[in-house]
């Protein structure tokens, strides 16, 4: 059985693209109405999607809710490069694009799967971001259905797109991806990672809806 801390961890540790479309990858997020800090507006768009997805009944439904906002708020190609690490530069361009195309559905399905255990969670966003190099950090407090809280930090680049997510200031989304991608890359290179992304996505989306409690 998952602990409350595991549930909060699930909201931030996922695996991430759908950014094969260059226009989406390059377009910076714009502030929502009344949102003065564009970095905060980006994170709010994503947490709004997470809260909406929590109300859906299946992984597939949650993934469909999350995929669009992820395209808009995450720098998915950059996160994929971080997840692959130094091997990325050795992958031919056409295979890089194939990986990017498979990465988005994988990330959306992973977040959707982990949200299955997070019913009732809410997100409180600090209204002001902090500078971090050329980018920003936005602090969020996640509260689960039992009232337990956990800090989550979203790291954004100069274009106000999310490039990493940290739980408790130490657990990195990019680092989690790197760990998960290591074995497929070692065993099959770019083709092995592509197969891993596609198979994992199909498996997660095929998960049945949880049975209603009596």
Automatic annotation (TrEMBL):
Entry annotated with the keyword Signal: yes
Pfam families: MlaC
Keywords assigned: Signal
Name assigned to this protein: ABC transporter substrate-binding protein
Species of provenance: Methylobacterium terricola
Signal peptide range in chain numbering: 1-25
Keyword Iron-sulfur: no
Domain of life, source organism: Bacteria
